Amino acid sequence: MSILNTEVITWFFACKVEDVPANGGVCVKYNDEQIALFNFARRGEWYASQNLCPHRMQMALSRGMTGTQQGEPKVACPFHKKTFSLEDGRCLSDEHECSITVYPVRVEDDRVYIGINNGKEEAVVMA
Ligand code: FES
Known about the structure:
Distance between the termini: 5 Å
Order of helices and strands: EEEEEEEEEEEE
Protein name: Nitrite reductase small subunit NirD
Mean pLDDT: 91
Helix content: under 10%
CATH architecture: 3-layer Sandwich
Number of domains: 1
Largest sheet: 4 strands, antiparallel
Structural class: mainly beta
Shape: globular
Strand content: over 45%
CATH class: Mainly Beta
Keywords: 2Fe-2S, Heme, Iron, Iron-sulfur, Metal-binding, Nitrate assimilation, Oxidoreductase
CATH topology: Rieske Iron-sulfur Protein
Organism: Chitinophaga horti
Pfam families: Rieske_2 (PF13806)
Domain Rieske: 12-114
Low-confidence stretches: none
Number of strands: 12
Bound molecules: FE2/S2 (inorganic) cluster
């Protein structure tokens, strides 16, 4: 017998593909949270992060500019241009700056879903 810890992801319908401009972002609400959703069309990829920029606590990242740094997708806050990785959320401008939360994104047909981690769930495996 062993115990597995697995993450529980809840996927919620965020919007349709056409609602997000190519190479731009929108703000999506999930309960009380604001999530920035990005259609990184240049790479054919989608990303999501918290909308709150931790630098000066501005709800701004959905209006940020997307780009890459050494091949890594990033977003630059429109206020003071701090940049954050869209892969793992760490601040790329200053290693001492706060990181941001990123979320997985799934696109099915023309519908975009964002995954929210609802914590760990223990599964007992009988062998
Ligand atoms: S508020 Fe985002 S970089 Fe300053």
